[in-house]
Amino acid sequence: MNWKITVGGLAAVVLLLLAMSVAQVVWGAVLYAHAIYETIDITIPEAHLTNVVMKGGQSEVVIDETTELAAPVIIQEVGSINCPGGQVVNRTLKVDIPSLPGPIYVSAILTFGEASMENVKMEAVYLCSSGGTLNGVNMTVADFPEGMVQEIASATMYNLFTKIFYASIGSLGYTDLEIKIVINIPWLQ
Amino acid sequence: MGRDAYSLIGSIVMWFLELWNRRRIVLPLLFLATLASWMLIGVVPRTYAFVLGSFFAAITITVVFLTFLLLGTIVIDSIEAGFIPLERVPRVVVGSLIAIFVVIGVLLYLALMLVGVAPPPPLPFLFAILNAMTVTPMVTLAIVIPPTIGYFLLREKWRRLRARVPFWGSYLGLLAAFLCLYPILTLPQLWLIEWPKFFGTAGALALPSLFLLSYPREGAAKAVGLILPFIGFISWFTCFGGMTLGSILAILGGACAHSWSPSQRGG
Question: Which of the ends of chain B has fewer CB neighbours closer than 10 A, N or C?
Answer without folding.
Answer: N
